[in-house]
Amino acid sequence: MSPKRIERLKQLIASHNRFVLTTHVNPDGDGLGSEMAFYHYLRHLGKEVFIWNPNPIPPNYAFLDPGHVIEVFGKKRHKSRLEAVESVFILDISDWCRLKAFGEWLIRQKLPTVCIDHHPNGERFAGLEFLITAASSTGEIVYDILKALGAEFTPAISEAVYTAVLTDTGSFRFNNTTPKAHRIAAELIKNGVDFQAVYENIYEKEPAEKIALLGMVLQKLHFEYGGRLVWFKITGEMLKAVGLKPEDSDGFSDFPRRIDGVEVSLMFVQVSLRRTKVSFRSKGNIIINDLAREVGGGGHQYASGAIVQKPLEETIKMVLEKAERLFSEEGSKQQDVPLSE
What we know:
Elements: H1 3-14, E1 18-22, H2 29-44, E2 48-53, E3 70-72, H3 79-82, E4 87-91, H4 100-106, E5 113-117, E6 128-131, H5 138-148, H6 155-168, H7 179-190, H8 195-203, H9 208-218, E7 222-224, E8 229-234, H10 236-242, E9 264-272, E10 275-282, H11 289-294, E11 298-299, E12 303-308, H12 312-323
Parallel strand pairs: 1-2, 1-4, 2-3, 4-5, 5-6, 8-9
Antiparallel strand pairs: 7-8, 9-10, 10-12, 11-12
């Protein structure tokens, strides 16, 4: 962590009083936990803080926000407060498109911005950036920043950071899990985080309708390349049958990776007649974020996503054709790409 950047961050916080925090569309535990950790830190300093996101907080993360401070951004709804915003913190995302309406507004402003993220991005995004792709999660970077700022790790901050690290490492199962991620978790548990309650809130309170949808999905898995690739689709009819929305399928792409021999999992979700969400997951032998970028998305080497402006079946055909090269020698991971701040 660069001391110069920390000093710039200290000065920015000290010289401003009204902050907005935001994260990407369909917020996950890493984005939400990182937001809430910084929210509590800034509030402790006496700052006025708002959290404006593109989408509502998912029910399984509501425990992070008992005070209901997280709001869905609307330009008309927040018009009066927009004029008073002095600085913006963007967490777990460095892509204007995934900030939706708030990003469209923010990119036209000349406000001091801070971006904290661990996703690879080759373009300059904010005035002050903490982009560390070697980190297990944005929550890990937030932990380091708060430590450098001398923050007190209150129960609320500890729970928020723990949630961020836990979820983005797949409960410490994914290959982005590091010894440091475990050390952070251990310290936060020592601080009093109820890890059993956090896990139960996130993973053991799924609605019956979601499990029913998962059952439908698991009955219609498609295997390619000798079982090394598995893919499935979720149609609008399937969602309608159980009364769910496209975003309710989050997490499904990880299930097929449990099958012996599967190296890559692809999930195709029909968002609308001409819009398809694609999730790419890899066990770690095949890099898939290049394929995601090729169809307009991005993400980590082994966990990426994209929104494709094409009908469901057309998207499936296109992505599967492009995926063929992943199973050549060139598609396999030869050596980890060096990661740096």
